[in-house]
Each structure stands twice: as C-alpha cells, then as structure tokens.
Amino acid sequence: MAEKKKKLTSNFGAPVGDDQNSLTAGIPGPVLMQDVHLLEKLAHFDRERIPERVVHAKGAGAYGYFEVTGDVTRYTKAKFLSEVGKKTDLFVRFSTVGGEKGSADAERDPRGFAVKFYTEEGNYDLVGNNTPIFFIRDPLKFPDFIHTQKRNPATNCKDPDMFWDFLSLTPESVHQVTILFSDRGTPKTYRHMNGYGSHTFKWYNDKGEYFWVQYHLKTEAGIQNFTAEEADSMKVKDPDHATRDLYDSIEKGEYPAWRLEVQIMTPEQAADYRFDPFDITKVWPHADFPPVTVGRMVLDRNPENYFAEVEQSAFSPGNFVPGIAASPDKMLQGRLFSYPDTHRHRLGPNYHMLPVNSAKNCPMHNYQRDGLMRFDSNGGGQPNYYPNSFNGPAPDESASDPAFEVSGQGVRQKYTHPNDDFVQAGDLYRKVMSDTDRGNLISNITGNLGGAQKRIQLRQSAIFYKADKEYGARIAEGLGLDLKEVERLAAMSPEERAEATAG
Ligand code: NDP
What we know:
This protein is α+β, with helices and mostly antiparallel strands and 503 residues long. It is 29% helix and 15% strand. It has 15 helices and ten strands. Strands 1, 2, 3, 4, 5, 6, 7, 8, 9 and 10 form a ten-stranded antiparallel β-sheet that branches. Strand 3 (111-119) and strand 4 (122-129) form a beta hairpin. Helix 4 (174-180) packs parallel to helix 10. The radius of gyration is 26 Å and the shape is globular. Bound molecules: NADPH dihydro-nicotinamide-adenine-dinucleotide phosphate (NDP).
C-alpha cells in the first residue's frame, strides 16, 4: 500500500496551508510581515551554507565494514583488531585537497582517504591520503603550503608562481611532488587508488610493548589513473565523476574493497634506522619492513543524505582507541590540533554528537556540557564535575597510553638528519617508474611548471636535478632552460639557491 502522504509543517510541526502564495496586503501586495511561514523558509535558506573545509572541501563518502583477516594481537590491544573474522562498521570520506567544494574530481591533487571505524572502544579515525608521504614535515609550514594552492590574493586565480615558488624553496617536497605529478596525481576513481595513513603511528599491546606502524590500504580494483589529457577531458565532461562513480558502484552492488596492511618497526630498529622513521616525506622501504596483512575494508552502503552524512562528517587523527597512539611525527602532532579545531569552527563544539560522527558501538559519558546545538539530554541531572561522589563516570586506568621517554632541549631546529631530501624521489624516478611513467611525469610537470616565472622554473629544475640528474635534465629540456644554469643552482645550498633566484 502506498505510504500515506505526509502533511507539510513548519519547523515546529504546525500544519502549513499554502506553500506557493505569500500572504499579501491586497492584490498584488506588498507581502505581510505576519507571513511567518515565508519568513521561516527564507531565513533558513539564508543559513544553509556552513563554512567549507579549508582543505579537502570536495568529497564523497560511503559506509561499510572492516574485517580482520590477520592476527596482529602481539602488536596492538585494539579490540577491533583482536580476532580474525571480527567485523567493525565504518564510514569513509574521499576528497581532493586544494580545490573548493565545487571543483572537479579529476584535478591533479592528492586524494584524502579518511576512515572512521566505529569500534566498541570508541571511534578510531585513520585520516590519510592516497600517497604514503607528504610535501612538508613541519606543521608550521602547512598554512603557507595550502595558501600556494588557493587563489592569488590579487587576481583570485590559481597561480603557478605561488605553487612552484613555495615548492622550489622547500626541497623536502620533491618526493611528494614526484608522486603528485606522476599519473597517480589523477586517479581514475576513488575506487582505483590506495590509501595510506602516511604518518607513523604507535601500536602497543597489553604487555605495554610498543611498535611503530605505517598503514597501507591496497585497492582490490587495482591502481588505475588518468593521463593528464584524460583528466582534463573528464573535468569538462563530468566534474563530479569520482563522486558519481562511488555512489553508482555501491548502488549496483559492486562494492569497492581494500586490503589493510601495516609495516611494523620495533623501537630498537627505529633507534638506529638509516633515516628518521617519523619523517612524513619518506616511505619505509618494503624490503626493510615487509607489509603484514591486517584485514579487508568493504564499502557497501551509500549515505541517504549528502549534507547530513558526508558534509557533516568530521575526522580527527587524534581519535585513537586503546592500543593505538601518536608518534613524534611533527605533522601528525600539528594535525592532532588542527582537525578537531576546524570541525569546532565548521560544525560547532558538539559536532561529535552528529549521527555520522557519534560513537555508535559504545556509550559516550563525560563532563562536557552545554555549548551551541547540544541536542541530546546534556547529561540530564547527572553530576557535571569530576571527581564526584554521585556515581558519575570515572576514568579507567587500563585505557591510559603507556608512558614514553622524552628527552632533549626545547628548541626550534632545522632538520638535521644525515639523510637528504632527494634519495627516495630519485629512487622512485629511477627504480620504480616505467619509461611511460617517466615520460608522463616529465610532460605533466613541464605543462604546469611552464606557467611559472623562469627564475622559479630554474630553481625547481635544480631540485629535480638533485633527485636525479636525468630527471632534472629532462625537465630543463622540456622547459627550454639552460642545463648549465640548472647544474650550477643544484650545486648550491638552499639559501644560496634562493638568493641566486630571488625575484
Ligand atoms: P619497492 O619496489 O618495494 O616498492 C615500490 C612501491 O612503489 C610499489 O610497491 C608501489 O607501492 C609504489 N609504486 C609503484 N609505481 C609507482 C608510481 N608510478 N608512483 C608512485 N609509487 C609507485 O621499493 P621501496 O619500498 O624501496 O620504495 C621505493 C620507492 O617507491 C619509494 O622511494 C617511494 O617513492 C615509492 N613507494 C614506496 C612505498 C612504500 O611504502 N615502501 C609506497 C608507495 C611508493 P604501492 O603498492 O603502495 O602502490
């Protein structure tokens, strides 16, 4: 039997008699102030937009589950990983990074890959990207880096000078730039890319032993990318192609899936490893730290309402559960603040209570009260302070992270690790990429860097040259630059190079 037609009401439930004709004083009008239905409708419409995320504004999301397929209990006491076969509900949001909410899905950009596991010990968020590394290793540089991908303050247009000026003055970015300008910078869909936790995280077991881990989510669909030409034509044909693809695949029952692997490093290995294992600009080589399979993630349900569930979803790399904790990675430490801070700005201090964000598989009890849009019972008549002798919620010592050693001076120090910024970018170019990958990389870079001023082109080419001589030489050739000048700049210190190419 067809569902009985619902009656239209005001926001407060009163029936509405007419939703087509405003109340007027005579015919044709003017409109009367006392048309409160019209006022409510317009006023709510005026407030429909919330601030868009300053990064990762354009995204798509879906629900699914995670199933444990490998025993990792000797490394972590996280309950959702405690048993092979155990399943945990989750929500995933994919995104581009730099563009606005209306930008095209096929833009060259890293892709956000954020997973919220609704575990029985609280929500665990793995807030990663489709790249295992990042452009910078210090959060002090993050707002500047993002500004370079936003619009020029004067022209309000995207500006290759801003982007390449910053990157060429920040040599640690060259590894990520090399991935971004390979065809992996334009994944064919969200289903055809890997996800990475990118940072190093800490796992600890119930004996208090700890391990450093890196997460990899490997797509079962296989990696597929657009060439630059294909991406450009998709931007025109369907700016929402990846959003549409994710939704349609799930509707058709073709559920995207990923295998979760971790690389594991002991504290002893970390202490004398050949480079800093907490440096987000580097990967851990597979040969040294072979990936261990943990489980499988499947996305099998679309959200019913995009705004409620995807736009209002809020992830934080600081949402840990017992058995998982932070590492000293400076970028991670910065994100621990910035993510929840941005959500409080975007959604308000009670954003954790929105259905997509709330702890679904365990209760939430604490002494936080009130605030904008507190829409549950706000703790009712229970005590709102701790300690109390009225049977209020109490901390459980067994949930504390194990103590960890910290030593040294409080200092702002330049990165001084003996290994340099160029080795892994060079390895990627020389050892991992095919001839086709290298050819596309060169044309993708020259096509974009060619829009920047010549002095910036020279400085950036010197950075590529330092990663690999052939790589730098091919970029220089593609841009019509003097190779001798590129070599001269490559031999300089970063400070001398900046001086020699100043505007
Ligand atoms: P391996 O040969 O063991 O691994 C190379 C990995 O590179 C592959 O497993 C694949 O990772 C990834 N890869 C393949 N083609 C491309 C491409 N065109 N662009 C970017 N990544 C690609 O060597 P190492 O572990 O010693 O790493 C060598 C280099 O590979 C690194 O310097 C890094 O640039 C890159 N890399 C390494 C990863 C790691 O975690 N060790 C992960 C990704 C890249 P995947 O299966 O994750 O796609």
